[in-house]
Amino acid sequence: MKLFTRPKTPGVLPMPLWLQGVVELGQAAVLSALLVFVPLTGVWFADGFADRDFTSLARLGGQGWLLIHGVPLTLTLPAGTAGAAAAPAVLSLFPLGLTLIPFFLSWRAGRRLAQASYTDQLWQALLGALGTYALLGTAAAYFSSDGGVSISLTAGALIPLIAAGLGLIVGARREAGSWIRLIGVDLTDWISRTSQHSRWAGSYVWSVIRAGVVGITAALGFSALLVTAALAMSWAEIVTVYQHLDAGIIGGAVLTVVEVGLMPNFVGWALGWTSGAGFSLGTGSIISPLETTVGPLPALPVLAALPSGGMEYAYAVLALPVFAGILAGWWFLREGENHFDEWLSLKIRARWFTAPVSTLLLGIFVGLVSGILAAAAVLVSSGSAGIGRFVDLGADPLWTGIWIAAEVAVGTVVGYAVGPWLEREERP
């Protein structure tokens, strides 16, 4: 089945799919690079970069393009520079908000490639697109390296494919409407040929995974609300820092773009804070509802919104992941199928035993899924600034995952237990 019928002109050969993939994702790479180069060029024309010619500015733009794709940069600071380390440091903190730019550009390219491909030919377009992106990443890593910054060619070729590949797949799936039209495999037909017990087990596992996604989505949503509230309440302090910096219109605009790009990272750090594990703003520092120890911080305006002063009731935020688990348990009651509880009831007739055990195990399973996803979210939002003590920024993935897993598990048990009363309709 062809996803889209292109009009054919007599005597004109259609563009090969691999070449169309090259063009589509090449456009995405160029547009995302322009969004990095244009602000830097504006700062350069405003004399914001001292002793930097246009060639070095182009290298800086390539480094920025690779960084928003998640490629780590190895920094070698001159001896005597403030914050210089004995060994080369790694800059691995990348702004997740700016990473959405190549993702959505690739999403658009994936939709267009799906429109132009037959079901069994889409791989040709994807292969040409991803191959082109890998070559461009390799070229950017090669030409952007200099005496102060070195970039692995392998990392430059492969890591940008994560954001671009996800965008391509999501966009192609969105255009196709189903996996069978996208890859030619009917998962529903394959599942229907399995045994009834396998379908029940698969349905239970799939419902648990989706409930875990609901739990971590709610927890991240609460963290985003906390970040928004902190920015709103500290707006005067943030403006004061901007005034003291006096970076000018262009410099202030670029700084704001960087801060906006880091907002998803701050949400990940806030997730660590609400879990109780806290997050770090430099080696030896910790910010959590239970303990706060912070050293000197850079003059970044958004850091004025950090929690400070008396936080006697800060531990109340630990209830937010629990409430997220309550939503996950309630969702499972409404949308999921607890086939494990049914199977356990058939094996053991004592309902007073099977109901609590199945609910407790449900909470553990859902909490485990949410904890793994929380650890992944914190991992990609944290990193190293590569300068001085700021080589440790963000929350700890292991402890954040453990805390979130435990809190969501408790909330899931409560939500699944009280769900029947929440679902009860009043009789006339």
TrEMBL record:
Transmembrane segments: 25-46, 66-87, 93-110, 122-143, 149-172, 208-235, 241-262, 269-290, 313-333, 353-380, 400-422
Signal peptide region: none
InterPro entries (alphabetical): DUF6350 (IPR045931)
Domain of life: Bacteria
Keywords, alphabetical: Membrane, Transmembrane, Transmembrane helix
A Pfam family recorded for this sequence: DUF6350
Keyword Transmembrane in annotation: yes
Keyword Transmembrane: yes
The name this protein goes by in its record: Integral membrane protein
